[in-house]
Structure formats: C-alpha cells, structure tokens
Recover the amino acids of this structure.
C-alpha cells in the first residue's frame, strides 16, 4: 500500500476514525490535510504525530456543512501539496433520539454535517480532480446504521444511507475518469462517539458481534487505506467493518 | 488569438482531438464526447473566458460552432 507522492484530505481527522485514517494514509506515504471543526489542539497533535514519523501534514479548520469552507479545504490541499488524489469523507456527528422525541434541529444538524458535508466536499474536489486527469479515490465513511437502521438514530441512519446511495452514483458518474468511489460501514467502533453509550447498551451490542470485541479506529483505517491505494478495480462498494454485527 | 481559435484549442485539449478535425459543423457526438466530457469542457471554457455557463445553456450547445457563437455573444 504505497501512497508516496499522493495527497489525501481527511475530514473530521482530529479524533476517532478520521484520526486513524490520517495516520494510516500518512504511514503509507501520503501527504495529509487534517481537517477539523473545533478541536484544534487534537488536530495539531495528529499533524505532530505524522511529522514525527517523517510524513507531512497540514491542519485546516472547516465546517463541512458549509460549501465555501469545503472549497477552502480543497484549496488548502492544492496550495500546500500542489495536488489532490484522495478524499476521505469522515466528518460526522450524532444527535440520537427516538423519532417521537426528535427535534427538527437534531434532524437537520445530522443531515447537514453527515450528508450535505459529503456532497460539499465531493463537489468542491471534483473540478481539480478532473483537471488533474490522473484518477482519484473517494472514500465515504458510512455506518452499519445506514445499512440496517438503528433505534434512536433515524437522522444518522438516513444520512448514512444517503451516503451509500451517493457513493454508488458517484462511482458510476466518475468511473470513466478512473476515480473510484467506495464506502466503509463501521459497526461498533470504540471512539468518543460510542463512549456516550451506557454499559448495558454496550453489553447488548457485544452479544451480536461475531468477533466478540468492539472495533478499533485502526480496524477501519486499514480498510480505508486499502481502498485508497491498492484496490484498483473496486468501486461503488460498501464494505462493512463491523466484526459481523447482526442488527 | 480569435475566439474561434481559442475555443478550438480548448476543445482539442480537453477532448483530445486534433485541431484540424474541428470545424464549426463538428458536433460533440461526432467526436465521441460523453456528458462528463461536456461538463469538463464547460469548466475549462468558464475558466478561460471568466464566465458562468448555466445548465440550460449547456443543453443548447451541440457543436463546435454553437460554442463559438455562444462565447462570442457573451464576451
């Protein structure tokens, strides 16, 4: 998995799965744009870790729900690294609630960041990617919730399901330009996002995981890096990284 | 450089066809351009002539001559 000379953008890269993806892509030789929305200190830490292992990285603050900030993010990659090869759409939020209690703001925010954010970044990256005429890799981080649904996550599941359909469509539209578009669907991964769940809920989920452990961000990053590098003939796919979680 | 030769240069470069194969009557179908080729061409034209071309206007562009006429009417 050699990405020497390539440039990757990872959204939501300061923590969790995004952070692991940034480190893994950098480990394979890519220069990385570490996007964050709030936690600058954590983003700096990711950049530092990459640089200490001999890689190159830059941090960039952007709220992916805003198109002009996504344009800025793409421009940052080109300004610093003169090219763009890989986009990892990872930034996401949860506002869990049963639909009966879900406020319109909770619905809207999750759609804005998780789904519109993917549109914004893909749209903004397309012009430079097509102009470069050297193909490209787009990997969207969906979720098993988007494949099967999940109680309390109507907003999140809808956004993630939308990402999956978007991924399949982009793969068709861009295949002739050698731009592959795939998604990963993580299951229960130990991050700050899943830390919020109670012990009882965690135990219940664990019973349904064939591999009998929760996933780690690195488990997802491995698959993302594979899709970004040696998966030359794979596009329009959704790979569940969930230890075989039955929903 | 005239608009016509500028346009022909851009089309030739974007769609990888030799410039002597391009006459005003050449349609994009003739040179096997698909819908994404047209989008890429429009992006290049927008950049070169610093303008925005609407989706509706793109629909009416079928040949090299259409592009030349369109650009001439706008600049």
């Amino acid at each position: 998995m050699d990405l020497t000379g390539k440039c990757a953008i990872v959204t939501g890269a300061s923590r969790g799965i995004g952070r692991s993806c940034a480190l893994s892509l950098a480990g394979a030789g890519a220069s990385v744009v570490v996007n964050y929305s709030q936690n600058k200190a954590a983003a700096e830490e990711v950049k530092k870790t990459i640089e200490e292992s001999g890689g190159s990285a830059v941090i960039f603050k952007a709220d992916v729900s805003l198109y002009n900030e996504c344009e800025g993010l793409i421009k940052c990659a080109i300004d610093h690294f003169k090219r763009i090869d890989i986009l990892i759409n990872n930034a996401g939020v949860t506002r869990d609630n049963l639909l009966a209690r879900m406020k319109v703001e909770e619905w809207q925010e999750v759609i804005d960041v998780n789904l519109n954010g993917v549109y914004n970044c893909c749209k903004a990256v397309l012009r430079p990617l097509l102009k470069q005429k050297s193909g490209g890799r787009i990997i969207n981080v969906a979720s098993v919730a988007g494949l099967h649904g999940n109680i309390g996550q109507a907003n999140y599941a809808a956004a993630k399901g939308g990402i999956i359909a978007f991924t399949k469509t982009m793969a068709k539209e861009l295949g002739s330009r050698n731009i592959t578009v795939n998604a990963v669907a993580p299951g229960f991964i130990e991050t700050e996002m899943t830390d919020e769940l109670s012990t009882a809920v965690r135990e219940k989920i664990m019973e349904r995981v064939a591999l009998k452990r929760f996933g780690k961000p690195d488990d997802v990053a491995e698959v993302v890096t594979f899709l970004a590098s040696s998966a030359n003939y794979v596009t329009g796919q959704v790979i569940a990284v969930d230890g075989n979680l039955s929903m | 450089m005239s608009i016509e030769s500028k346009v022909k240069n851009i089309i030739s470069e974007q769609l990888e066809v030799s410039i002597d194969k391009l006459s005003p009557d050449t349609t994009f179908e003739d040179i096997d351009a698909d819908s994404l080729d047209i989008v890429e061409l429009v992006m290049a034209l927008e950049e070169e002539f610093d303008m925005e071309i609407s989706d509706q206007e793109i629909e009416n562009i079928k040949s090299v001559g259409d592009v030349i006429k369109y650009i001439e009417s706008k600049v």
About this structure: The first strand of chain A starts at residue 7 and ends at 10. The mean pLDDT of chain A is 96. Chain A touches chain B through seven residues (CB under 8 Å). The beta strands of chain A are 7-10, 31-36, 57-61, 86-89, 136-141, 179-186, 238-241.
